[in-house]
Amino acid sequence: MKFLELLNQTGLIAAHRGARSIAPENTLIALKRSLGKCDFIEIDVQLSQDGVAVIMHDDTLERTTNVNEIDVFKSRKPYRVCDFTVDELRTLDFGSWFYGDKNHKEPLLTLHDALEFIKENNIFLNIEIKDMQSCFRDEVVVETVVKEIKESDTHGLVLISSFRHEYLKIMKEKLPDVPTAALVEGKHPQKLLEYLRGLKVDAYNLNDELVDKESVEKLREAGFFVGVYTVNDAKRAKELFNMGVNCVFSDSLTKIGMGIL
């Protein structure tokens, strides 16, 4: 089964940044702990200074690493991911902030390793490309992700999403067989269906506060899959699925999964 076939279903649960309620987000251990608890995993990708695709949500390192504890990096504020080489990022600890224990470390996760993981475990992956227009040209960002997908031969296992919709246009040109999803928050684009058709996306992922039954029905009738983030309440997940939403993105996999069984 390919990702598009998966999306034809409803009641799907996506692990938001991996199993981030029980493991440090966007790390390999978070992906491992998601197995068996979700239908697919969502991660965030951006580029290091030297152009390596790494898995990080924030555009700065301070919240989820120990970067501010390392003397050699103290002059590097605001600690933007794109200002550090991949070798520098590999020296950081991506786990202790979560566990509250400096001995409980987790290494950097690269897109290469994440794709190898899903291939080995036959699990689907939603790759959100973070907006990096202040650091890299759009074509460079997308081509880096495309190269990793091609080299890992994971075309059928991935979906690409982004708030920067320019990336999605380029992605469809380079890998037309890979599904894409437009991410939005706060308000819909004008002439929504026409806009999405122009992007040639397969799905529309919106925040929970924006979703309503009428919009979901129109989107589904027009052939678009609908995902909603971030849903950590089982009752709310049921309501969304009853509207026709295909998937919800959740931090609390066990709670949501048990609640909708």
CATH class: Alpha Beta
Biggest sheet: strands, sense, closure? 8 strands, parallel, barrel
> What is the mean predicted local confidence, pLDDT?
96
Lateral strand order in the biggest sheet: 1-2-4-5-6-7-8-9
Residue windows where pLDDT falls under 50 for at least 5 positions: none
- What's the architecture in CATH terms? Alpha-Beta Barrel
What CATH calls the topology is TIM Barrel
User: How many DSSP-defined strands?
Assistant: 9
β-strand percent reads 15-25%
Please name the fourth-level CATH homologous superfamily.
Answer: Phosphatidylinositol (PI) phosphodiesterase
Report helical residue fraction: 25-40%
Structural write-up:
- By secondary structure, this protein is an alpha/beta fold.
- The chain has one domain (3-57, 113-260): Phosphatidylinositol (PI) phosphodiesterase (TIM Barrel, Alpha-Beta Barrel).
- The chain has helices spanning 3-7, 28-34, 86-89, 96-99, 111-121, 138-152, 165-174, 192-199, 213-221, 234-243, 253-260; strands at residues 12-16, 40-47, 53-55, 124-129, 158-162, 180-184, 203-207, 225-229, 247-250.
- Strands 1-2-4-5-6-7-8-9 form an 8-stranded parallel β-barrel, surrounded by 6 helices.
- The two termini are 23 Å apart.
- The model has no long low-confidence stretch (mean pLDDT 96).
